[in-house]
Amino acid sequence: RIFSTALMTGGEDGFVKKWSKTGNLQSKLCHTGRAVYSLAWSPNKQSVLYCSDKFLTIKPLSPSAKEVKWKAHDAVVLCVDWNPINDLIVSGGEDCRYKIWDSFGRMIYDSTPLHLPLTSVAWAPSGDVLAAGSFDRLLLCDRHGWVHSSHQIKTGSIYALSWTDDGSQLGLAGASGTVGIAQKIGQKRVCGVVHAEVKDVRLVHVTAIGDEKAGGTAADGGELSEALLRPEELEFSDRVVEVSVGQTHLVVVTLSACYVYTCGSSCTVHHKFALAGGAVTLVLQARDIFLLASTNKGVQIFSHDGQLRCSPRSPGLPLARFLKHSNLSLADDVLAAVSRANPNQVIFLDTKKGTPYAEPYTHPIPIAQVALSQGRMSSERKAVILDTNHDLYITRIHRPQPVKLGTMIDTVRWHSGFDVLACVSHQRLVVWYYPHVVYVDKDLLPKTQISIDAAHFGKQSEIIDFQGSSCTIQRADGSLQSAPVSSFPLTLVQYATKNKWAQCTRLCRFANQTVLWACLAAIAVDRKQLEVAAVAFAALDEVDKLEMVQSIIAIPSSEAQRAELLLYQRRPDAAEQVLLGAGLTYRAIMTNVRMFRWRRALDLATKYHKKGISHVDTVLGHRARHLKAFAKTETDPKFLQIASKVAVDWSKIQAKEKQERTNELKQSSRKPGEKSVILKVILDTQASTSVEPVGETESDSKADGASLDGGAAEEKKAKEADGELTFDQDNDLTM
Fold first, then answer.
1. Which of 51, 59, 26 is nearest to 17 (CA)?
2. Which of 351, 396, 603, 689 is 20 to 30 A removed from 254 (C-alpha atoms)?
3. Which of 307, 269, 313 is nearest to 293 (CA)?
4. Confidence (pLDDT) at 729
5. pLDDT value for 714
6. What is the DSSP string of 621-640?
7. Cα angle value 716/719/720 (rounded, 5°)
C-alpha cells in the first residue's frame, strides 16, 4: 500500500516492510511467521493494518505504541481495507465471509457464508459502499454490510479492486487475466420535494412533487398531494457522477458539467456550467447555494444560478477526498467543517468571501458530526456537535457556549426550514422544537421536546431528511420510512418568525398542548414579548415565572427590562453591562446585592458616584441586614475596613433609593405618574387561560372587545385569501 511519502509491503515471507518513495528499505515493521496477504494504512497514516493467518493486527509505526490484534475469521484472512472517511475496516477470508469492524476490533457486521472464498475487498472513497470479489462473483455492499447487488462475471477469482476518486466506477482484475470496469448506479437521493435515483450510467429518474396552489412545499409546512407525483427521466451525454436534491433545486454532476434544475410540478434546467476537470467527491445544498468539492479545485460554493460565490481556503479545511456529510455542513451564510489538523475543532467560513466567519470552536473530545441550523435568521445561527462518545451539544457560532442536549445519540438532523432539531436516541425519535431554549430558560427544555418510539427503525438507522412535519429515516437495511411529527409547533415557529403573536396565542389555545405553550413562552421571552410570555407561563402553571414576567413588565425603563431578562437567562455579567451602559448605576448595584455578589456591589458603589451621591452605605446596610438575618458577623476585611469609615443611616438610604426610582422613571419612555400595565392572569388548569388588563372598566372592555372582533373578522378574511391557518366554528384546522 502506497502513501504519499512511504510504501508498505507484506508477503509470504511473513515480513511487513516500510519503503521510501525512491525504493529504499526504511524498516522492517514486524515478522509474523505466516504469510501476509493484504494490508492497509490507517486513516491518520500512523499505523498499518495487516492480516496473517486468521488474525487482523493494527501495528503502530511508533515502536513504543501497543498493537491491537484479534481473531477475525475461522480460516485464513485474504484481504482487508480501511476507509479513511468512516474509519471502518472490512476483511474477507477463506471461510467465505466478509466482515466489518471498527478501529478497536469490534465486529459490526458478519455476512452469511458465500459459496467460495473472498479474495478482494475495497471501500468506495466516500465510505458509503464497499465492493467484495470472489470467484466469478462481484458484490456491492452497503457500509452497514447488507448487499446492494450481486453480479456473476467470468473473470475467475477477483484479485484486485480499485475505485475512481469520485466513487462512480470500479476497476477489477481477475485470475483469468481479465480487467473490467463497473459503473455504480442506483444511488438514491431523497428530499421532501424531490426523489431522484441514478437508473443508468447517463440516466437519472426523478419524481417531482409540489405545486404552490395545492398546499405549498414541505419547507413551508404545507401538505404534499400524492396526485402531483410525476416521474421524469433526465438523460445526459456523460456519465453521472453525483446527484443532490435540495428543497427547491436538483443538482446533477457529470464528468464535464454541472446541471441545476428547478423543482416544482416538473424539473426544468435552471442553469448549466462546465467543470474544469477533476473528480467531484461531494455535493451539498443549502436553501440558496450549493457546494462542490473536487480533487483539483477543492471546495467551491455556487449560487443556484451557477455563479461562483467563493472558494473557501483555510489551513484547517480537509482535502476534498476526505470531506463527507458528517464533517462538513453548509448554510446560506456560513460553512462549518471539522478541522483537518485537529479533530476536536470546528472552523467556520463565510460563504460569500471564503474568509473566517467566527472563531473556531474547540470540543474536549474528537467530533464525529457537525450540523448547522438552516433557519433564515443568521444572527441566531447555531451548530450541533455530535462527538465520538455519542453526546450531543448545541452552541451558538458567534458566542460559543456549548450545552449538552442528550447522550447516546445515533443520528441528528436540523429541519430544512426552521431551527427545529431531530435525533434518534435510545431507540426513540426526539424532536426539539425550539432548541434555542437552552439559552433562554433551560428548565423549559424538556417541555419543548417530544419523544416518539423508534424501535421499529432498528439499530444504525439514519435521519436523511427532515422537512415539513415528517422525518425520513433510512434503516440499516436501506429501506426508507417516514416518521410523522406534530405540525402545530412548526406552525407556531413560523408565526413567531413573522412576529404574528396573536396567531401564536390563538394556535396554542386551540391545540392546548404543553409543548406549544412551552415553545411560545421561550420564544416570547427571547423576543421580549413579555405579555405573550405571561399568557404562556400562566397556561403552563409556572407561577414563579409568571410573577417574574409581571415584575419585569412593571419596570419603567426598557434597559432595566432588558437587564432583568438577561438575569432570567442566567447572564448576570451581561445584565450589569446593560445597566451601566444605560447609566442605571443604582440598579446595577442592587442587582448584585440581590444575587449576593457583595464584593462586586461594593466595587461598583465605590467606583461610581453620581452628583456626589454614593451608595456605599446602601451596600453596607443591606449586607448588615443579611448577616443579621442569619445570625452571622462580618468577617470580610474589605467590608470591615469601609464600615469603620462609613456610617449607615437607613433614613438617608431610603431617601436615596426613592430619588433613584424617581430619576429612573423620568429617564424612561413613560410619563411621570403613568402606571404600567400589569396583566392579571387567571390560572385555571381545567379551563382556557384568559388574560385581561387590570384597571379597565367594563365599558372599556366591551368597546375593546368589539374592536377586536371587527379586526379579527378582517384578519380572518385576509388569512383565508393568503392560505394561512384559520379556525372555523367546529374547531377544525383548515388551510
1. 26
2. 351
3. 313
4. 32
5. 42
6. HHHHHHHHHTT-----HHHH
7. 85
Instruction: Please write down the HEC assignment for all residues of 215-269.
Output: CCCHHHCCCCCHHHCEEEEEECCCCEEEEEECCCEEEEEECCEEEEEEECCCEEE
> Looking at residue 600, what is its pLDDT?
92
Question: Tell me: the pLDDT tens digits for 415-444?
Answer: 988 899 999 998 899 999 999 999 999 999
Between the CA atoms of 446, 325, 60 and 46, what dihedral angle is there, to the nearest 10 degrees? Answer: -120
Residue with cell 451608595: 615
How many other C-beta atoms can be found within 10 angstroms of the C-beta atom of residue 291?
23
CB 238, CB 272: distance < 8 Å: no
- 690, 682 contact by CB (below 8 A): yes
As a whole number of angstroms, the distance between CA 444 and CA 705 comes to: 33
Contact 49, 80 (CB under 8 A): yes
Report the candidate in 219, 134, 214, 172 with the shortest Cα–Cα distance to residue 466: 219
Query: Cell match 405573550: residue?
Result: 532
Q: How far apart are CA 139 and CA 152, in angstroms?
A: 9
Is 232 in a helix, a strand, or coil? strand
Residues 443 and 168: beta-carbon distance below 8 Å: no
DSSP state of 209: -
First to last CA, the chain: 62
Dihedral angle, C-alpha 208, 213, 215, 220, nearest 10 °:
80
In this prediction, residue 213 carries a pLDDT of 35
C-alpha 380/C-alpha 64 separation (Å) is 47
Q: Is residue 434 exposed (0-12), middle (13-18) or buried (19+ Cβ within 10 Å)?
A: buried
Question: What is the pLDDT, as a whole number, of residue 318?
Answer: 85
Calpha distance 364→341 (Å, rounded): 15
- Confidence (pLDDT) at 2: 54
Computed over its alpha carbons, how large is the radius of gyration of the chain?
Answer: 32
Q: How far is CA 444 from the centre of its chain?
A: 20
Q: How far is CA 629 from CA 607, 623, 657, 689, in A?
A: 28, 10, 22, 40
Cell numbers that stand for 139 in this block? 458484490
Task: Identify the CA nearest to 1 among candidates 45, 33, 66, 59.
Answer: 45
Beta bridge partners, 194, equal: 208
Q: Exposed, middle or buried, 545 (CB in 10 Å: 0-12/13-18/19+)?
A: buried
- Nearest in space to 356 (alpha carbons), one of 393, 398, 319: 398
Q: Return the closest-CA partner of residue 85 out of 187, 2, 167, 194.
A: 167
645: Cα within 13 Å, side-chain hemisphere = 6
Q: And the C-alpha cell for 326?
A: 458528517
Give which of 376, 371, 375, 377 is closest to 392, Cα–Cα: 371
Would you mind telling me the total number of residues written for the chain in this entry?
A: 735
Nine-digit cell string for 506: 390563538
Cell numbers at 463, concatenated: 435521519
| Positions of the chain with pLDDT under 50 | 210-229, 671-735
Q: Are 180 and 172 in contact (CB under 8 A)?
A: yes
Element at 328 (helix H, strand E): strand 328-330
Cell matching residue 619: 451596600
Q: pTM for the whole thing? A: 0.81
Cell of 566: 438577561
240: number of Cβ within 10 Å: 25
Round to whole Å and give the CA distance between 120 and 80.
8
Those residues with Cβ within 8 angstroms of residue 389's Cβ, 6 or more apart along the chain or in another chain: 365, 407
Q: Which residue has the cell 479513511?
A: 84
- For every residue of 661-703, DSSP letters joined together read HHHHHHHSSSPTTPPPP-EEEE--SSS--EEEETT--HHHHHH
